[in-house]
Amino acid sequence: MPRYLTVGAAQMGPIQRDHSRRDVVGRLIAHLREARRMGCELVVFPELTLTTFFPRWWMPDQAEVDAWFEADMPGPDTAPLFAEAKALGIGFCLGYAELVRQDGGTRRFNTSILVERDGRIVGKYRKVHLPGHAEHEPWRQFQHLEKRYFEVGDLGFPVYRAFGGLIGMCICNDRRWPETYRVMGLQGVEIVLLGYNTPLHNPPAPDHDEHSWFHNQLVMQAGAYQNGTWVVGVAKGGTEEGVPSLADSQIVAPSGKVVARAASDGDELVAHRCDLDAGRSYKTTTFNFVVHRQPDQYRMIVERKGAVEPPAT
Ligand code: CDV
Questions:
Q1: What's the pTM?
Q2: For the chain, what is the domain count?
Q3: Does any ligand 1 atom lie closer than 6 A to the CB of residue 144?
Q4: Which of 48, 79, 102, 310 is the most buried (most CB within 10 A)?
C-alpha cells in the first residue's frame, strides 16, 4: 500500500533589504493558498525565508545583526503564517535565523522547523555545515559571514516521526556533504526537506560558477539514491541585493530522478505526490545498510589518516 504525502516546494524570488517580514509572510501565505489548490499537505520554504540573506554584509554592530533574527517562533510577524497554515490544514518547513537566550547568554543558529498541520512545531534542525568566513574580507564582491553570525548547529541530524513518515531536515551547504544524508539514512529517513541560498558566483572558487546548477542537482540526486529517500530542495533564487542566486528548486525521488522542478527564478510552487514507501526497495536491496555497509572497514581507513604507500615490488 503506498503512503502518499503531497509536498510543495515553495521557491521564493529575491527578498530585498527593505522588504518587511510582513511583506514576506504575505508571499508565504499566497504560496500556502496555491498549495491548498494543488492538494499539498506539506510545504517547504527556503533557508532564512523571512529576510534577505543578511550574511552577505559585514556588520560590526551586533544589534544590527540581531535585528535579522527571530527570538520567538511564532512571533508577531509569523503568527499569521501559522494561523493560515492551520486553517488550511497544511504543514510547513520554515528556515529562519534563530536567537536563543540561554543561561544569561545569547546563541544564534541558522534553523529550520517542521510544523504539523495543527500548527504544532514538531521538529527543529540547526545548520551544521556553515560555509564562508568569520572576518571581513573586503576583496569579495559580497561577504558570506555565516561563520561569524551563527554557531554550528547542536542538534545533529534528527529524523522526526511526522506526517505519517520519517522526516529529516538540512540547510543549504549541508546538502553538499554525504554525511548529512547518511546520518539521516541510518535513522531510516524517508524525506529530507532543505532550503538554500546559493549565489551563482563563488568568490574563492570562480571556476565552480558554471557548474552551480549541476552541483546542486548532483548532490541532491546522489543523497536521495544512496539513502533511498525523497529530497525536496527549495531555493531563494533570483537577484537579491545585486547578487544573482541559483533557483532550480526540485523534488528528487528515492530513485535519484528529479520528478518536479521550478521553471522560473521567482516565487513558484512545484508539487509532487510522494509515496513515502518508494525508498523501501532501495533500503532493502542495494542500500540495505545492515547487510552491505562495512563500518569496520570505514573506521580502519579513517584511523589510518591518509593514503598508504604502494607495496614494494
Ligand atoms: N547558504 C549557503 O550555505 N550557501 C552555500 C554557498 C556559500 C556555497 C551553498 O552551499 O550553497
A1: 0.97
A2: 1
A3: yes
A4: 48
